[in-house]
Structures are given as C-alpha cells and as structure tokens.
Design a protein that fits this description.
Elements lengths: L32 H16 L7 E2 H16 L11 H7 L3 E5 L5 E5 L1 H11 L3 H14 L18 H12 L2 E2 H7 L28 H13 L2 E4 L6 H7 L9 H6 L4 E4 L4 H8 L28 H10 L24 E4 L6 H8 L9 E4 L1 H9 L2 H14 L2 H6 L4 H7 L5 H4 L1
Antiparallel strand pairs: 1-3, 2-3, 4-6, 5-6, 7-8
Length: about 425
C-alpha cells in the first residue's frame, strides 16, 4: 500500500464510517439505508461472482451495484458513491480485494461475510454481533477499505475504544472528538503512563468517529449514550485551536460531555473479546497487518489446495465431524474453510529450514468457519483443545518432515509453557 505525505496522522474511520444504522436483523433494517447498502452489497458479491474464479471486477461492480440495490433492496441511487459500499466490507473482512494478472482490481466475498449474511437472513442477531465484534477487534491500519492513512498510524482503534470503556466504565464525547483519533501508535503512551482516557493528549478536532462510528455502534446495540453534567467551557478553548471549523460546532459542543457506555445486552460479548487486553495489544509493529499477514512479504497460498482438502474431507469439519448448515455462494457446497495446521506466516521459514512447503494438502484440514475463527482468534483456553486435535490430524511422516513437536506447534500460535499448563 502506498502512502502520500499529505495522508493524515490520525485514525481514519473504517470504510465510509457507518456500516449499519439498525440492529442486525432484517426486520429492523427496513428503510435503513446504511444497513441495506452493506447487506445488499455483500449479497451482490455472493450472487454475481464468477462461477470459476469467485471474483467480480471493480468495473462490473461499479456498473451493476446500484441497479441491484434498487431492485433487491428498494434503495434510490446515490450518485456520489458508486462503489464506496465495498469499502465497508473490505474494512471488516467481509470481502477481499484481489489484484488480477492484468493489475485490475477484483472483489470476492470472504467466508466470514457469507456466514454473516446467512445469519442475518435467519435472524441470528447474537451470532452476527459476535462476528462483528470479532472483526472490529482485528481492524487496524493499513487496511484495504480505509485508505489515505499515514504509515505512522499503527493502532487497533476498536481495541483502544473498548479498552478504555471497560477500564473506566465510559469515555466521553471530548475523548472521541479531540483525543481518540490521535492515539496512533505506542509513542502516544509516553506522556500517559497510567493510560487514563482523560489524560490522553488532545490533537486537532476530528468529528467522524463521533458522528459516524459511535452512532453506528449505538444503532446495532453495542453502545449507549448517557447525558452528563460535564462543564463545556473547555470545549471552546480546544475548538478555537482547530484550523478547520466547517463542522457543526453547536452539535459537537452539546455532546462534548456525553458519556459513551456499553449496553447491558452485549456487554458480555465485549468483555469476552476485549476484556484481557493489555496496553501492548492496542498497537502493532511494522510486520503486523489486520489479517495477520506480514507487510512486505506476500504469503503464497494456492487456493487449489484448499478446494482439494475440502473435497477430500467431504466438506466435513475434521475437528467436530459436522457439516455446516449453510451453503457457500461459490459452489453451493457446505460452508467450510481449508485450515493450514501450521500458520502460514511461518511458511518461508519452514521452507528454508526443511525444504517443505506447508501450503499443501498434507498440512491442511477442513474446519467449520466458527472453528477456524476460534483457532486463530480465540482465547488460549478456548482454542487449546482444537489446536491439539488439529495437531493429531497430521501424519507422523508429515510431522517428521518439518521436525514438529507439540510444544513447537503450540508456540507457533503464541501458546507458551504447554508442559507446565497441561
């Protein structure tokens, strides 16, 4: 991803800032344009993708998307945004961007996006809330759905937001307007050793997190707004230092002291995903990307192996013995994932050390989508049994070829001291 000198040194809002404007249920989404755009664009990708490649070109999407949204979702065309809805899907990992051999941009739905759409259509709101919260946890910069961000920005914004809310019980409008957008890397903590939100250094005035993202999180049911008696005299002082004052001062001043808290309904989901964060988890280094892929080192994956593995396993999860209840929009087969038992970020190292490429069906198994998510992003105590089961799926010969012990394998997933914990 290329950066330009003028790119802002702040946390840009993901995608277009507001993926949803309703609860994640079809009945709630009637006449809610943002939710219908997001769901409709995801549905379009699944229905219209090429049967062989699974791709849709950017040109095709640009030509067809509004006709589709008008016919299927009853939306009127917004002539100012031909394709920006795709940015929301890219930002949260519901879709993927693929650059073809002709250097043209293409899109395809991600498995997690297909699962989200099926849950939405089946009114499984809580399942989708878990998916959304999990995908926001992973969001960071650089991000294919959020461009024009300085290379100095190395943060996980939603981790920062929920870290402070869980730690202090709430954050304020002031925090979201003047402080939160500028917590861009670990260097921002030098002045704030106790990491309290009210001590975070104020930057310029940036309204979009407050005006777009926070309302979205309120609409879906994750957050609530509470009025407070906070004095707003400090607002004028801060606002007068802002060079660009085109956004509504009165509205932002009114909500300057508003408290942003977690809703009781979904507090347990947020605590489960964000409750064990440390300060070190809020920012990243140059070699971390939102999908776990190392920057500057493209991980080679042959998608043909994943399909062979699924066919070999009859589209059945090797760890649970079950098939998914929903069908993939690509081939109408039970939805599942081809899982690399050894994380692909170690592909190059293992290839250099042993001459064995782990991007091969001998080192892959079929798993359900939610199992795949738990393996890669769940808490250690939740995924330990799954990891050990996956390890036993490897043949003795495959383990010997790459000199793989159980301890070494778990270390690849960041689980240390296995013997002392078992």
């Amino acid at each position: 991803m290329n950066y330009k000198a003028r790119d802002p040194e702040r946390q840009q809002v993901p995608g277009n800032g507001r993926f949803f404007d309703s609860r994640l249920l079809a009945d709630y989404a009637k006449n809610k344009s943002n939710t219908l755009r997001t769901v409709g664009t995801l549905s379009y990708l699944i229905e219209k993708q090429d049967s062989e490649s699974g791709l849709i070109s950017k040109r095709q999407l640009k030509e067809e998307i509004w006709d589709y949204l008008s016919h299927e979702m009853g939306l009127e065309e917004n002539k100012t945004c031909k394709v920006h809805m795709i940015n929301n899907l890219l930002a949260v990992g519901f879709a993927e961007e693929v650059i073809g051999s002709d250097r043209q941009i293409n899109y395809k739905p991600a498995f997690i996006g297909e699962l989200f759409l099926n849950n939405y259509l089946d009114d499984k709101e809580r399942k989708n809330m878990e998916i959304l919260v999990d995908q926001l946890y992973r969001f960071t910069y650089p991000n294919p759905g959020t461009t024009k961000v300085s290379e100095k920005v190395k943060s996980f914004p939603f981790r920062i937001l929920f870290y402070f809310i869980l730690k202090e019980g709430y954050v304020t409008g002031k925090f979201m307007l003047f402080q939160f957008p500028y917590l861009i890397n670990s260097g921002c903590l030098d002045f704030n050793p106790t990491l309290k939100s009210e001590l975070c250094k104020c930057g310029a005035y940036y309204h979009k997190w407050w005006q777009w993202v926070i309302p979205m999180l309120v609409k879906v049911g994750i957050l609530k707004l509470e009025e407070s008696d906070c004095r707003d005299t400090d607002f004028d002082r801060l606002y007068n230092t802002v060079p660009n004052k085109k956004w509504a001062k009165g509205t932002c001043k009114k909500h300057y002291g508003t408290k942003i808290v977690l809703s009781q309904e979904y507090k347990d989901i947020i605590k489960h995903r964000y409750g064990n964060l440390s300060v070190l988890d809020l920012f990243h280094n140059d070699d971390v990307y939102s999908t776990g892929v190392r920057l500057g080192k493209k991980i080679r994956k042959d998608s043909g192996y994943a399909e062979k593995v699924k066919e070999r396993d009859n589209y059945m999860c090797r760890l649970t013995g079950k098939q998914s209840w929903w069908k993939s929009g690509i081939n109408n087969k039970p939805g599942c994932a081809g899982h690399h038992i050894i994380p692909m970020e170690y592909q190059e190292r293992i290839l250099e050390e042993t001459g064995i490429d782990i991007d091969h069906e001998d080192y892959m198994i079929t798993v359900l989508i939610d199992i795949h998510e738990c393996i890669h992003k769940g808490r250690d105590k939740d995924r330990m049994e799954l990891l050990l089961q996956a390890y036993e799926c490897l043949s003795a010969e495959a383990k010997a070829k790459i000199i793989l012990t159980k301890e070494k394998y778990l270390n690849y997933y960041g689980i240390k001291n296995y013997l002392s914990n078992s």
